[in-house]
Write a structure and sequence with these properties.
- The complex is a heterodimer.
- By secondary structure, chain A is mostly helical.
- In chain A, 70% of the residues lie in helices and 0% in strands.
- In chain A, helix 6 packs across helix 9.
- Chain A is globular and about 50 Å long.
- By secondary structure, chain B is an alpha+beta fold.
- Chain B has two domains: 155 residues, Jelly Rolls, CATH 2.60.120.1440; 132 residues, Alpha Horseshoe (Serine Threonine Protein Phosphatase 5, Tetratricopeptide repeat), CATH 1.25.40.10.
- In chain B, strands 2, 3, 4, 5, 8, 9 and 12 form a seven-stranded antiparallel sheet that branches. In chain B, strands 1, 6, 7, 10 and 11 form a five-stranded mixed sheet that branches.
- In chain B, strand 4 and strand 5 form a beta hairpin.
- The longest helix of chain B has 46 residues.
- The chains are: A mainly alpha, B alpha+beta.
- The interface between A and B is large, with 60 and 46 residues.
Chain lengths: 185, 400
């Protein structure tokens, strides 16, 4: 029987007993949240380390009112946002080595698109930015994104709609990007 | 390409950039845990330093206040039900009345039912006997048995100290340079110029060194026992009942009903409770030795054992007490027993919760008891029952 996460706490702390395995399971998701939240140009591993450490510190305070993943997401995003708005941002972009059997040109184009997108995203209000990242980039449904953000699905859809409108306007001014995309067809 | 199409194409490309997978999850998790523990230690150390600093500052302030307070005369005021009794007047020195504690005290019963007891040599005046009664005690000691009355007051002034009574039995002793207050039942507020102390049953307070304190304690306690034993409270209650049944004959300042009558050993139990409150568990336990057939005493014994860290004995005592207590206290005692049993004997703890009906909807401890019950069910492997109880719990108390 699937129990609400709050109730799992009642099992005498079962949910908090194996900290290391819980955290290990969380790492891939947290890494994804960090990268998606920040975009390119950050030391993602450093942010990830700090975010996970914050999650561990907040572990005991988890009262089970939401899923643990939602709780962790909020902490990770908060830490990532702090990085994004602080002076520690945008150090050197360490491009990962290209994988084998991949067209270097298309990889470069993808990265350029990613950078252009995050440049535009950085100009959006915070909530609309996160709504777009979660729904359009990360591919979550409005309901899933709303649960993570602790809001209603309708609100999330509204934010997403506004974000799309503003991003389309911003990107349309990027002639290089337009040329790139049109050339790619 | 429209702006919308450009956006979609850009997002599609951006999503193709691979994410993550370059870190060793287990290693990252271990590092994060290690870092968090280090940060936790640093934070605790910082909090400890802050707390130590704050404690030092409080200690310095306390010393300063003590020195300041020692240089001035305090003010006592006792207020209660319907009367005001002044014990001395500000600025007026008490008379050198001769107090002979061996002489039989005299009693004065006011029309409102309150009883004032003092030695024959006590020097006092009743300034008012209406709703707010006022008695001025110029010298000596008195015991006051004041019924709780919500629309009246009972205030004692002595030098710079004032005591407000909240419906109680208490004693006040005044001698040159010091005022003492002892509370036997209920509570009083002792008020100085800038601070208020609350004294409860068993507490004693003095503004300065009192002479013959032990004698005073014995005398006042003896009078309290008499108050408990004699019938004036019954008369007071009967008068109240008569007034209720015949509202037209009700006096202008009607009395409220008395609090529940103490049993014969109530003074002793209250004193033992005061020991517990002071953290003197051994003494409280000793005093409970001779009373193994009364629920109140058994509860006190259990509390004392728990205070001494003797969990098994305390659990047994709570269970025994629960069998002879009224509903609310029975639930509390059973819950305490279950808590103590939870770690080493979860089956036994479950039995206690069920037997004493601690988890029922009418139980004042329902939510806590049900949470404990769910933990225990999981612990003893009754997972299905635990799940069912957990869902029921969530339905009743969840989604705050």
């Amino acid at each position: 029987m699937a129990l609400p996460s709050r109730l799992r706490l009642l099992r005498g702390g079962e949910a908090t007993s194996d900290l290391e395995s819980t955290m290990t399971a969380l790492v891939p998701k947290a890494e994804r949240w960090v990268v998606r939240e920040l975009g390119p140009g950050y030391d993602h591993e450093e942010v990830l380390q700090e975010a996970l450490s914050a999650v561990v510190l907040a572990f005991d305070a988890f009262d089970g009112r939401s899923a643990f993943e939602t709780y962790a997401y909020r902490i990770v995003v908060r830490v990532a946002r702090r990085f994004r708005t602080s002076e520690r941002r945008r150090t050197v972009e360490a491009a990962p080595p290209l994988p084998d059997r991949v067209d270097p040109e298309s990889v470069t184009m993808n990265r350029q698109a990613l950078r252009a997108l995050y440049r535009a995203l950085d100009r959006l209000p915070e909530r609309r930015r996160r709504a777009f990242v979660l729904c359009a980039v990360e591919g979550l449904t409005a309901v899933e994104a709303a649960e993570l953000e602790g809001t209603r699905a309708a609100t999330m859809r509204s934010r997403l709609r506004h974000a799309r409108r503003e991003l389309a306007r911003l990107l349309s001014h990027d002639s290089y990007l337009r040329e790139l995309m049109e050339r790619d067809g | 390409m429209t702006p919308e199409e450009l956006l979609d194409a850009t997002v599609a490309k951006a999503r193709k950039v691979p994410i993550g997978g370059r870190v060793d999850a287990a290693e990252v998790a271990r590092q994060a845990i290690a870092q968090a523990r280090l940060e936790g230690r640093v934070r605790r150390a910082r909090r400890g330093r802050f707390a130590a600093g704050a404690a030092a500052a409080v200690a310095v302030l306390g010393v300063c206040w003590g020195l300041w307070a020692a240089t001035r005369q305090p003010v006592v005021a006792v207020s209660s039900a319907k009367a005001t009794i002044e014990v001395g007047v500000r600025g007026q020195e008490p008379r050198d009345a001769v107090q002979d504690p061996r002489m039989e005290p005299r009693r004065l019963r006011l029309a409102t039912g309150d009883v004032l007891i003092g030695a024959p040599t006590v020097d006092f005046d009743i300034l008012s006997e209406t709703r707010d009664r006022v008695v001025r005690l110029s010298a000596g000691e008195m015991v006051f048995d004041v019924a709780h009355q919500p629309d009246g007051r009972f205030v004692v002034h002595a030098d710079d100290v004032s005591v407000t009574v909240l419906g109680t039995v208490f004693a006040v002793r005044r001698e040159p340079g010091a005022v003492g207050v002892r509370v036997f039942e209920g509570a009083v507020l002792v008020q100085g110029d800038e601070e208020v102390l609350r004294l409860s049953a068993g507490d004693e307070w003095a503004s300065g060194p009192l002479s013959e304190v032990e004698d005073w304690r014995i005398r006042s306690e003896r009078e309290w026992r008499r108050i408990v034993e004699d019938g004036h409270r019954e008369e007071r209650r009967a008068r109240t009942e008569r007034a209720r049944s015949n509202p037209t004959a009700r006096p202008p300042s009607s009395e409220s009903p008395d609090p529940p009558e103490p049993s014969g050993d109530a003074p002793e139990l209250a004193r033992a409770r005061a020991m517990l409150a002071r953290g003197d568990f051994e003494a409280a336990l000793l005093s409970s030795d001779a009373h193994d057939d009364d629920g109140g005493w058994l509860l006190l014994r259990a509390d004392a054992l728990r205070g001494l860290g003797r969990a098994d004995e305390a659990a047994r005592a709570y269970e025994t007490a629960a069998r002879s207590l009224d509903r609310n206290r029975r639930v509390g005692a059973a819950f305490a027993a279950a808590q103590l049993r939870a770690r080493n004997a979860p089956d036994e703890a479950l039995r206690l919760l069920e037997h004493f009906d601690v988890t029922s909807r009418t139980s004042p401890l329902e939510e806590r008891a049900r949470a404990l019950q769910i933990q225990l069910l999981y612990r003893v492997g009754r997972t299905d029952e635990g799940d069912a109880e957990a869902l029921a719990y969530e339905e009743r108390f969840g989604n705050p």
